[in-house]
Amino acid sequence: MSTERPHSVSVAGVIVDDQGRALLIERRDNGHWEPPGGVLEREETIPEALQREVLEETGIKIALPATLTGVYKNMTGLIVSLVFRCEAADGTPTTGDETRALRWATREEVTELADEAYAIRVLDALNATTPPAVRAHDGVKLV
């Protein structure tokens, strides 16, 4: 039996407005800008987790199904993240327990605000490439 720590699975939702901007959150715990998201709970499906995390962190209910735009592995944190391009169905962007600020960001602003490992997720979602992007990073930089 292996004593290695298992991987976690997380989801993130890149909500895109009709001007082609992405909604980013500034996290309360580390001050980083990134798309809303988090780790799946044990009994949750992927769409349920995506909808819950985006709602908790932004106050926005997203329309399902959402489009998978990338799969990312944090090689140091051992987290596999599934990132989806989303459309807002209801709600108004609001801060909460986990979110210090929210901002609609252009492609250029995304690269200025977010670490490379998170900016690429948003850019991949804005580009909505087919098939989805598959990338690895160390938590900050792509590897």
Summarize this structure as a short list of keywords or feature phrases.
single chain, 143 residues, alpha+beta, Nucleoside Triphosphate Pyrophosphohydrolase, 5-stranded mixed β-sheet, 3 helices
Low-confidence blocks of residues: none
Could you give the order of the helices and strands?
EEEEHEEEEEHHE
Number of helices: 3
Output the CATH class name.
Alpha Beta
Query: β content, as a range?
Result: 35-45%
Output the radius of gyration: 14 Å
Number of domains: 1
Share of helix, binned: 10-25%
- The CATH superfamily label reads Nucleoside Triphosphate Pyrophosphohydrolase
CATH architecture: Alpha-Beta Complex
What structural class should be given to the helix and strand makeup?
Answer: alpha+beta
The major pleated sheet works out as: 5 strands, mixed
In the CATH hierarchy, the third-tier topology is known as Nucleoside Triphosphate Pyrophosphohydrolase
Mean pLDDT: 94
Terminus-to-terminus distance? 29 Å
Query: What overall form do the CA principal axes indicate?
Result: globular
Q: How are the strands of the largest sheet arranged?
A: 4-1-7-6-10
Beta strand count: 10
What does this molecule look like?
The chain has helices spanning 46-58, 107-113, 116-127; strands at residues 8-15, 22-27, 33-34, 37-39, 60-62, 67-74, 79-86, 88-91, 99-105, 133-137. It has a 5-stranded mixed β-sheet, sandwiched between helices. Strands 3-2-9 form a 3-stranded antiparallel β-sheet. It has a two-stranded antiparallel ribbon with strand order 5-8. By secondary structure, it is α+β, with helices and mostly antiparallel strands. The mean pLDDT is 94. A hairpin with a 4-residue loop joins strand 6 and strand 7. It has a single domain (8-137), classed as Nucleoside Triphosphate Pyrophosphohydrolase, CATH 3.90.79.10. It has 3 helices and 10 strands; from the N terminus they run E-E-E-E-H-E-E-E-E-E-H-H-E.
